[in-house]
Amino acid sequence: MLRLWGKLYKNNKIIQDTVICNNDTNLPTDKKVDLSLYEICMLFDLQKPIWLKDNHKDFKKFRRTSFRRDHFIEEIDFDYLEIEIIEEDK
């Protein structure tokens, strides 16, 4: 099982958050993260952000990353979206 916590921040405060669970044991972790991020974006009514090299590095090292204005094509009305793995089966 993978649980991914998605949070929208504005002025250093969480304005919206959700936790997405993915129990599909046949999928690799990166695919579970991708599907969970898609679900978070659907719930928050956002386009899916663009993963940059720094996002991959941060996510691998800290199990979290954030997406700012330059990760989105459309205008956003928050400061950044942060995702974090809060539970993962090994």
Question: Outline of this structure?
Answer:
29% of the residues lie in helices and 36% in strands. It has 90 residues and is α+β, with helices and mostly antiparallel strands.
Question: Could you characterize the architecture of this molecule?
Answer:
The protein is of the alpha+beta class. The chain has one domain (2-88). It is 29% helix and 36% strand. It contains 2 helices and 4 strands, in the order ββααββ. The protein has helices at 29-44, 53-62, and strands at residues 2-10, 13-22, 64-67, 80-88. A 4-stranded antiparallel beta sheet has the order 2-1-4-3. The N and C termini lie close together (9 Å).
Layout of helices and strands:
Elements: E1 2-10, E2 13-22, H1 29-44, H2 53-62, E3 64-67, E4 80-88
Antiparallel strand pairs: 1-2, 1-4, 3-4
> Average pLDDT, to the nearest integer?
95
Question: Would you identify the regions where 5 or more consecutive residues have pLDDT less than 50?
Answer: none
Q: What shape does the CA trace take?
A: globular
What's the number of extended β-strand segments?
Answer: 4
Largest sheet composition: 4 strands, antiparallel
Radius of gyration: 13 Å
SSE-based structural type: alpha+beta
Strand order of the largest sheet: 2-1-4-3
Our estimate of the beta-strand percent is 35-45%
Helix residue percentage: 25-40%
The count of helical stretches stands at: 2
Spatial separation of the terminal alpha carbons: 9 Å
Oligomerization: single chain
Secondary-structure element series: EEHHEE
Count structural domains: 1
